[in-house]
From TrEMBL:
Protein name: Chemosensory protein
Record's keyword annotation contains Signal: yes
Pfam families: OS-D
Keyword annotations: Signal
Signal peptide: 1-19
Keyword Heme: no
Organism domain of life: Eukaryota
Length: 137
């Protein structure tokens, strides 16, 4: 369970996309709140666990069952600016995004390159990170 949220948050750090051609998704149900109370500080503080989640997202390592479920949601989350995420999940995404960007910039770049190989959303990632860095956790 913790792994699903962690991988979701790692992946959704890439979700800073605003798309002019988005369809109305106001009635789309949100992601589960089952993982909203996970201690993300402990996860980002543990380099081994964090790297395992990154490698799962990058298809470099076998994922846990929770990680596999998550990978089914990554594309949707990226394309739709995490419109299914609640405020707790968005705060977690900022926390993990900041940690990856500041403490593991190579991992951040690997994730960006993997999920956005054409750099279509690169400027939005930069804005997301600048906004996240300006906010308190």
């Amino acid at each position: 369970m913790i792994r699903l949220l962690s991988v979701l948050i790692l992946s959704v750090t890439l979700v800073v996309v605003t798309s002019d051609d988005r369809k109305d998704r106001s009635n789309v149900p949100g992601y589960t709140t089952k993982y909203d109370n996970v201690d993300l500080e402990a996860i980002v503080a543990n380099e081994r666990i964090l790297r395992n989640y990154v490698d799962c997202c990058l298809d470099k390592k076998k994922c846990t069952p929770d990680g596999e479920v998550l990978k089914g949601h990554i594309k949707d989350a990226i394309e739709n600016e995490c419109d299914k995420c609640n405020d707790v999940q968005k705060k977690g995404i900022r926390k993990v995004g900041k940690a990856l960007y500041t403490k593991h910039p190579t991992w951040w770049k690997e994730l960006c390159d993997h999920f956005d190989p054409e750099a279509k959303y690169q400027k939005r990632y930069e804005k997301f990170i600048q906004d996240a860095l300006a906010q308190e956790d």
